[in-house]
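Consider this today:
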Amino acid sequence: MQFVDGAIDGVIWKTLKKFPDPRGWLCELFRIDDIPAEFRPAMAYVSLSEANMSRGPHEHIDQADFFCFIGPSEFKVYLWDNRPDSPTYLYRETRVVGQGSPAALIVPLRVVHAYRNIGGVPGVVFNCPNRLYKGWDRKEPVDEIRHEEEKASPYKLD
């Protein structure tokens, strides 16, 4: 499978702004009036990634992710368009975000995604997906295809 580098259709990037004051800073992660209805969060979680560690690549069949990268580290984000009906099918997009370039990222379903902490210190990532993990009362199968477990996966992190 050969990928072309470029922006992926339907992926939404938004620059996040930190508002500093003598106490520290504040950053709006999302507002309901700023997100298309199909991507509005159903839950939220936070994860910590140790330096040089990766999460993904994986994709969802019926879930969009809404990641927020604000620091204290830097992350290289990888996206691959795995949607045959997309105008950017087989495109690959990468971007570095985090402490120096805070950003929110909406990843539509069937877009394979991964990120690696490249900042040298542990980093925090917020995610506000538009579906509940394992559904109501955690009684449904996990909506995830984990490509990181496939030895011959075409989705490679550099």
